[in-house]
């Protein structure tokens, strides 16, 4: 008999799923995540044998303004810290996405329109009259002997004379050139912008040198082709870079300027030194008047700017004779990095007023929530129609009109993109995830902390992303055009929503509603500190957030990151109960035995399509506990005391249905007859026995007159009309059909 009872009890959760398929939304991720090992632990921390490669570069490069050509040579030292012998090395040649044999235009869908302008037609034909891609001049070993190499589109394999053993280093050399593209015409993450009024160029240069691909314990070689959407996976190393440009150009770059006395005028150098000690406002190092005068110059001589950057994963620079330059020191613990901005006069007055200030605010907030900013500078460079990031430097849009006028929308957009791109110093430039594979790990996490920065320093700025309610329209859209967050970068359909907006909204829900700021912030900072200057995977993030908080979040990752479900909870029914009393004990304000009409008393739909509270409560009869209910226990419940404590209580049985599929906490706001209100938070685990429908009874001292589910739109519920009670139900299509047929 006991076995039968237990069997029936075990079936109850399955029986309760009769109205929907049991999808195991609360099962552990288990084998979905990679098996922990000595390199990456089950806690999400690096293991005792964690390793990563190191790549150091010494680069000499020259930019020729007349023909927009980059000529460079580099000496690369590759250190093999892996347990494996390497017979060859893979080098990324990202500029080859613009070569004539590139796969990128072949893999992009195109369509004709009834009308096409010159710009769109040129993009369709890909006929720019441009010879793109790297021209590799040589690949040699340290003794200048040629090394065999094979180019496969955007990847180059360099074959080593002998396998590189664990702990060994190899040094080799590459020389190359390429033509910088017109970014405003051809697109791209780097390139030049032309200013026809003063016949000048502004160069933002990235992906400009052959760079070693990542070799790690998760993927081996990360050698996915660069098609343009998925970004980059790179190793940390030390850089020494000598940049030669026309002598009237200013240069902004990753790292610390090594020869300021040669590169700067005495006046500029004096201002630069002053900026290092100025914390309250930017110091202008090159003024607008000086930059405007410099625009007229056409130097035939050259100047070399030397930079050094330690423990970075990439190097980028910007250069032009148009640059205004300002800088301000930021106090972060025992460090005082310089926040700096470079911008043409076309960016003013907006850039002079806001850019460096936004850099400062970003460093402060991100250092609080992740790791203290470790680098000596953080630079924001202005050029049109872009937002792109590299270690210590980023390129950002935001240009007033010719009269210097700008809208609030442009101002907030510019501030937002600066915060976002400077924030990328943390994700992925320090916490170094694989952008080629998992866009959300840098874009989504960064967008979330961007929203924290905006809330802290720009409360009047309309948030674009980073709150639950801002992702609702996307999540309730056609699932044909939605992919799970855990989708490779090159296969995402709605890139901004999928990789930026939804992960940021998910983390907001996690912080504000599920974990609470204290637990979340500690776990998020733990993840950042564990994986600073390392290569985290999604599993490392998921596991660390649970490990450092003691909150089981597998259900959350499954729903938000691995599925396209959305939140849509409906409050289907509210039934009000009170305790009944025997006829001889009737009190005027207490309900008598006997039940009212069930359709009305339960507050279900009536002919008028109104869901409202019943005029009188349903009655339940109180009974003393029988002996058989105590089993082997000797102690007894004080039935009289329980009855007395509850005889004037109001019992509200609420029925919730999960229409969207994504399990979520229930946030219930109660409004009482006396005008007071309160809010209760029910954990998402309420759905663990039935993923489709749950009932829960709430006991209240006061009479309830209104109920709202998710009153502050914290969960991304896509339909709030069925979150309120009482409410007027909209007629269904079938109801309208019946009405019309009469």
TrEMBL record:
Q: Where is the composition biased (Basic and acidic residues)?
A: 727-742
Q: Which domain of life is it from?
A: Bacteria
Q: Where is the Peptidase M1 membrane alanine aminopeptidase domain?
A: 411-560
InterPro entries for the chain = Peptidase_M1_dom, Peptidase_M4/M1_CTD_sf
Please provide an example of a Pfam family that matches this protein in its UniProt record. Peptidase_M1
Q: Give the start-end ranges of region Disordered.
A: 715-742
**Signal peptide (residue range):** 1-18
Q: Which UniProt keywords apply?
A: Signal
- Protein name, UniProt field: M1 family metallopeptidase
Q: Which organism is it from?
A: Reichenbachiella agarivorans
């Amino acid at each position: 008999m006991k076995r039968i009872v237990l069997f029936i009890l075990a079936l109850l959760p399955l029986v309760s799923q009769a109205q929907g398929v049991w999808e195991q939304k609360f099962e552990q991720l288990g084998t979905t995540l990679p098996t922990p090992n000595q390199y990456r632990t089950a806690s999400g921390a690096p293991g005792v044998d964690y390793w990563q490669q190191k790549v150091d570069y010494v680069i000499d490069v020259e930019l020729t303004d007349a023909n927009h050509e980059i000529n460079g040579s580099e000496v690369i030292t590759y250190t093999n810290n892996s347990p494996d012998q390497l017979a060859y090395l893979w080098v990324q040649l990202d500029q080859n996405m613009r070569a004539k044999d590139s796969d990128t235009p072949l893999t992009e869908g195109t369509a004709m329109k009834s009308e096409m302008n010159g710009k769109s037609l040129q993009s369709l034909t890909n006929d720019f009259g441009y010879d793109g891609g790297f021209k590799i001049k040589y690949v040699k070993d340290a003794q200048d002997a040629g090394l065999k190499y094979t180019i496969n589109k955007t990847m180059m394999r360099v074959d080593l004379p002998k396998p590189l053993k664990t702990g060994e280093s190899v040094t080799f050399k590459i020389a190359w050139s390429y033509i910088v593209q017109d970014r405003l015409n051809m697109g791209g993450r780097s390139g030049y912008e032309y200013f026809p009024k003063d016949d000048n160029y502004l160069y933002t240069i990235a992906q400009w040198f052959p760079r070693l691909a990542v070799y790690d314990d998760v993927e081996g070689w990360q050698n996915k082709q660069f098609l343009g959407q998925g970004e980059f996976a790179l190793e940390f190393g030390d850089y020494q870079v000598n940049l030669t440009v026309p002598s009237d150009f200013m240069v902004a770059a990753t790292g610390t300027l090594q020869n300021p006395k040669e590169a700067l005028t005495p006046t500029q150098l004096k201002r630069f030194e002053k900026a290092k000690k100025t914390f309250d406002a930017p110091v202008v190092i090159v003024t607008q008047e000086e930059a405007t005068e410099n625009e007229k110059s056409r130097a035939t001589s050259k100047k070399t700017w030397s930079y050094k950057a330690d423990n970075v994963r990439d190097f980028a620079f910007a250069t032009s004779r148009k640059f205004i330059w300002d800088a301000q020191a930021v106090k972060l613990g025992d460090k005082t990095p310089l926040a700096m901005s470079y911008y043409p006069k076309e960016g003013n007055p907006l850039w002079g007023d806001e850019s460096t200030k936004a850099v400062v605010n970003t460093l402060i907030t991100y250092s609080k929530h992740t790791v203290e900013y470790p680098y000596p500078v953080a630079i924001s460079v202005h050029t049109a129609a872009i937002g792109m990031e590299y270690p210590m430097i980023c390129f950002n849009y935001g240009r007033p009109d010719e009269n210097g006028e700008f809208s609030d929308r442009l101002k907030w957009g510019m501030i937002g993109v600066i915060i976002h791109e400077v924030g990328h110093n943390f994700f992925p430039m320090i916490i170094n995830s694989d952008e080629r594979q998992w866009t959300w790990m840098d874009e989504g996490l960064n967008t979330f902390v961007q929203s924290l920065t905006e809330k802290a320093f720009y409360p009047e700025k309309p948030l674009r992303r980073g709150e639950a309610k801002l992702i609702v329209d996307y999540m309730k859209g056609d699932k044909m055009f939605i992919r799970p967050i855990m989708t490779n970068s090159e296969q995402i359909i709605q890139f901004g929503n999928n990789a930026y907006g939804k992960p940021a909204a998910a983390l907001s829900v996690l912080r504000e509603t599920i974990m609470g700021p204290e637990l979340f912030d500690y776990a998020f900072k733990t993840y950042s500190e564990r994986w600073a200057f390392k290569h985290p995977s999604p599993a490392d993030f998921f596991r660390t957030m649970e490990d450092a908080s003691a909150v089981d979040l597998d259900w959350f990752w499954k729903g938000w990151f691995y599925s396209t479900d959305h939140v849509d909870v409906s409050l289907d029914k509210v039934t009000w109960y009170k305790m009944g009393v025997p006829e001889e004990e009737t009190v005027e304000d207490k309900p008598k035995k006997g039940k009212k009409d069930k359709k009305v008393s339960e507050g279900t739909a009536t002919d008028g399509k109104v869901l409202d509270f019943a005029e009188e409560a349903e009655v339940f009869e109180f009974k003393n506990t029988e002996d058989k209910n105590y089993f082997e226990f000797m102690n007894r419940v004080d039935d009289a005391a329980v009855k007395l404590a509850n005889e004037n209580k109001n019992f509200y049985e609420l029925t919730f249905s999960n229409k969207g599929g994504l399990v979520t906490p229930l946030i219930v706001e109660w409004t009482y007859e006396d005008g007071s209100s309160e809010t209760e938070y029910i954990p998402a685990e309420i759905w663990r026995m039935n993923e489709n429908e749950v009932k829960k009874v709430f006991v209240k001292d006061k009479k309830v007159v209104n109920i709202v589910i998710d009153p502050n739109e914290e969960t991304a519920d896509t339909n709030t009309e069925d979150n309120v009670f009482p409410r007027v139900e909209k007629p269904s299509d079938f109801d309208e059909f019946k009405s019309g047929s009469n």
